[in-house]
Amino acid sequence: xxxxxxxxxxxxxxxxxxxxxxxxxxxxxxxxxxxxxxxxxxxxxxxxxxxxxxxxxxxxxxxxxxxxxxxxxxxxxxxxxxxxxxxxxxxxxxxxxxxxxxxxxxxxxxxxxxxxxxxxxxxxxxxxxxxxxxxxxxxxxxxxxxxxxxxxxxxxxxxxxxxxxxxxxxxxxxxxxxxxxxxxxxxxxxxxxxxxxxxxxxxxxxxxxxxxxxxxxxxxxxxxxxxxxxxxxxxxxxxxxxxxxxxxxxxxxxxxxxxxxxxxxxxxxxxxxxxxxxxxxxxxxxxxxxxxxxxxxxxxxxxxxxxxxxxxxxxxxxxxxxxxxxxxxxxxxxxxxxxxxxxxxxxxxxxxxxxxxxxxxxxxxxxxxxxxxxxxxxxxxxxxxxxxxxxxxxxxxxxxxxxxxxxxxxxxxxxxxxxxxxxxxxxxxxxxxxxxxxxxxxxxxxxxxxxxxxxxxxxxxxxxxxxxxxxxxxxxxxxxxxxxxxxxxxxxxxxxxxxxxxxxxxxxxxxxxxxxxxxxxxxxxxxxxxxxxxxxxxxxxxxxxxxxxxxxxxxxxxxxxxxxxxxxxxxxxxxxxxxxxxxxxxxxxxxxxxxxxxxxxxxxxxxxxxxxxxxxxxxxxxxxxxxxxxxxxxxxxxxxxxxxxxx
Amino acid sequence: xxxxxxxxxxxxxxxxxxxxxxxxxxxxxxxxxxxxxxxxxxxxxxxxxxxxxxxxxxxxxxxxxxxxxxxxxxxxxxxxxxxxxxxxxxxxxxxxxxxxxxxxxxxxxxxxxxxxxxxxxxxxxxxxxxxxxxxxxx
Lengths: 647, 138
Known about the structure:
The structure holds 2 protein chains of 2 kinds.
Chain A: H1 3-6, H2 12-34, H3 38-46, H4 51-81, H5 90-124, H6 133-151, H7 180-208, H8 221-253, H9 266-299, H10 307-320, H11 336-364, H12 373-396, H13 398-404, H14 408-438, H15 444-470, H16 487-517, H17 558-564, E1 579-581, H18 587-603, H19 607-625, E2 632-634, H20 636-642
Antiparallel strand pairs in A: 1-2
Helix pairs in contact in A: 4-5, 4-6, 4-16, 5-6, 5-7, 5-9, 5-14, 6-7, 6-18, 7-8, 7-18, 8-9, 8-10, 9-11, 9-12, 9-14, 10-11, 11-12, 12-14, 12-15, 14-15, 15-16, 18-19
Chain B: H1 4-11, H2 17-39, H3 44-65, H4 71-75, H5 78-107, H6 115-125, H7 129-133
Helix pairs in contact in B: 2-3
């Protein structure tokens, strides 16, 4: 392989990206060296097993990926703004919509939600950390390395270009030669390990590590939604793992699972992909529902309406989300009986979600509502998400879907579900729990600008796409003729897209502004309205052991109960006992680095490199297996000092 | 973390024979499946039946050896017991949905008359085909 095949060449946009990546890396290396931060980085972040820090790293990576995926989206919108545009060529456009979709779902939405779950859930159930803190670090690093492996594809070797669904035979060796599609397979496979481990970890954490007195039906709604999400992850992700492995065999080792030759079944890929893909939709939307439930209840100063209905709605979704997958390919030709059955199951799954919409409305009914930014995002969610839901029921009718499918109507629909559901919830949750992570709030005035600019931009971007879809504009085309008459609405949509981009920049400015100027919090209950245990810590940012004394739960919304009982969250000095905590470890970081070596080798089919990487992974597994480290104890004196308790 | 002393340290003593035996038997079953496929002269149908039997045996083996199938009765803990039972039932439900659902969807309507599918049916009938593909391994 020659160097000009190894690096992507010939496009000024790519050269620009090369330069900016180079400058960023040099800048970071300079900063770390000049301010002597290497040790700090290693000790505090790269080796940490603390759920709060891992959560923050997840969220930071997700925001970075939101930027990357957002730039992809804006490049697409520039290309489509005018008919017969020459801004991007067909291949480049295909690569960009593929990476946009993959990054936004796998490397933005999921890690953002998993990050918030990491920060909040152990606090919310009164635990000191997750059940398996070391495994949690492995989860993060495999996700991060998978994301990085996928992301370098656009400067080294070339990006995948077969869509985020990677349908066969398009994604096969004949039609997608070169390393691009391999990046997709290996990047997702490595990141998938992390997701599956997170599923197991939080499932056990929520089932086994709740504070005494917190029965299943006293759990906060976000914890419930996380529990259900983890169940779906544990059962859905193995399907993706197997499907990716089979396609990797097809591409690298000449197998014929999904190929046209050798009796392969190309459509089986679509079938397996959506058997994972539909539950995945619920994986990224259920935690969002949980967060909105917490925020709406908190800022309405009311108990969540219909708690049990909410829980059962989610339990039903956990099983039912596996029964609707065929609606993603009604037009594949599986006949009217199959289509009718999946049409009906799809319409039925709208019911539990409908129940929840009414629950949120009734929670607000007669509540004393504070219009803080997290609450604004929640209100925006309800309105916009209903548009996504209603158009979803339209698409659920198999016969009508023959008209809608593969048009911008579908594109607009799923953006209304995923942006209004997942992205709004990520912003709402991030702002809501920001003081829990950093000890100060994001500026509310700037936050309201972010909300309004984003919300207006979002609607200006996607409402025209519903109309374009009904006018017959197909998705995944890199250009269209002026005679089609789609030019005006596309230009409008692009304007909306850029408004969302501007909102992101204002949000980034808010991170900086609030870091400089926000008032520092000095109580654990930053909003003053907290209902659940994460607000019952003694300081704004909890110490690494979270609670000096494990709280006892007597009622739902335990902090509200404590406020009623005039009970102080400060622990009594005689209750302080030494606390057992896990040690930091650098092994997960190295394990993931070896995964990167293995993945990179397999992408280019350099098998010696793949084997070296995998041997490295096994060595780290062996090191961990013979590690007798049982953690350490935080002494009573240290706890008293941290909690500022004096006799 | 919750109970650092009891559960963790108790299981860490000595060689975990159960896991070692389970691991070796899993590898043996996988190797046998490969051998039957590549090295025997059975018809495709017979090979499929044999490797399916190996697959089910291995699944059962892993559930018993690695997956703590019998744990609920040991510990006599109602939540653990219920979780285990619910887990197994749910897993069985999902497995049936994935396998039976895929067979149904891929075999229904005009997906059934799909060109590649016909090729496969054809191969299945002339059951010497698969052996011919791998003739060079003999």
